[in-house]
Design goal:
By secondary structure, the chain is α/β, with parallel strands linked by helices. Helices cover about 25% and strands about 20% of the residues.
């Protein structure tokens, strides 16, 4: 059985309540995203909060809004953020991106979006929402 968390040098990401666990794609996006001159970041589909946390670590002045449609994942992201050094700069919002409205202007928008378009769905609704483009597709992003 795998660990219910992933340990980084400066923070831990618990992922036992999320459909998608910490994976290479999220870690690479968090490490490679260009954050030069970035002060306002939007993370669409934050899941565990992994990418938001990685970007907060890399940008000491940035404020980050992390949106997540799944209530359990959003709660897990809130817990992960609360236990980090950057809790005062990351706001986790449980909301469908389609209805998200804000006056904020963002320097950087990141997403590790669902990537299956016409693939077979599994019985787990939470996992389907995280993996398939039924709720969040490329055109919407």
């Amino acid at each position: 059985m795998s660990n219910p968390f992933f340990q980084f040098k400066q923070f831990t990401v618990w992922h036992d309540k999320c459909a998608m666990k910490v994976g290479t794609d999220g870690v690479l996006l968090g490490a490679w995203a260009d954050v030069e001159n970035t002060f306002q970041i939007l993370d669409v589909g934050t899941g565990t909060g992994l990418i938001a946390l990685m970007l907060a670590q890399r940008t000491p002045l940035a404020r980050i809004t992390a949106i997540e449609i799944d209530e359990e994942a959003a709660e897990q992201a809130r817990i992960n953020v609360a236990h980090s050094s950057w809790a005062d700069r990351i706001d986790v919002v449980c909301k469908n991106f389609r209805s998200f409205e804000t006056e904020d202007k963002y320097n950087l928008i990141v997403s590790n979006p669902p990537y299956f378009i016409d693939a077979l769905h599994c019985p787990d609704k939470q996992r389907n929402m995280a993996r398939h483009t039924c709720e969040l597709n490329y055109e919407l992003l």
